[in-house]
Amino acid sequence: MRSFSYERATSPGAAAAAAATTANAKFIAGGTNLLDLMKLEIETPAHLIDVNDLALDRIDETADGGLRIGALVRNTDLAADRRVRRDYGVLSRALLAGASGQLRNKATTAGNLLQRTRCPYFYDTNLPCNKRKPGSGCAAIGGFSRQHAVVGVSDACIATHPSDMAVAMRALDAVVETVRPDGTTRNIPIAELHRLPSDSPEIETTLQPGELITAVTLPKPIGGTQVYRKVRDRASYAFALVSVAAIVQRDGSGRVALGGVAHKPWRVEAAEAELPGGAKAVTARLFADAKQTRDNAYKLPLAERTLAAVLREGGA
Amino acid sequence: MAKVSFDVNGETHQFELDTRTTLLDALREHLHLTGTKKGCDHGQCGACTVIVDGRRINSCLTLAVMHQGDEITTIEGLGTPDALHPLQAAFVEHDGYQCGYCTPGQICSAVAVLAEVKAGIPSHVTTDLNAPVRLTNAELRERMSGNICRCGAYSNIAEAISAVAGRSA
Ligand SMILES: Cc1cc2nc3c(=O)[nH]c(=O)nc-3n(C[C@H](O)[C@H](O)[C@H](O)COP(=O)(O)OP(=O)(O)OC[C@H]3O[C@@H](n4cnc5c(N)ncnc54)[C@H](O)[C@@H]3O)c2cc1C
Ligand code: SF4
Ligand code: FES
Ligand code: FES
Question: Which Gene3D superfamilies does the record cross-reference, listed alphabetically (chain A) (predicted)?
Answer without folding.
Answer: 3.30.465.10, CO dehydrogenase flavoprotein, C-terminal domain, Uridine Diphospho-n-acetylenolpyruvylglucosamine Reductase, domain 2
